[in-house]
Amino acid sequence: MAQQNRGPAKKGSRKWIQILVNEKPHLLDSFIARELNLSEEDNINWLSPLRNEGYAEYFDEASLDKLGVQLSRKPLRGFWPKNGPQ
Question: Fewer Cβ close by (within 10 Å): the C or N end of the chain?
Fold first, then answer.
């Protein structure tokens, strides 16, 4: 699986995303829900960067696999550069 286990970040936006996703997801969820105009029934399920997975960040096909997305018409490498979606 194409992923990068970076461990806990020491500074910057990656550090704050890790903290929010693992310790205060409701804060991030409420901001995202408001910005995307999601309904109360919509739930956000964080799949990365999770502490119990070494803060892994998934990319390329691994990111789609993690989401359960299959591209049936054209493979990802046919239209997206390497190290594309994360």
Answer: N
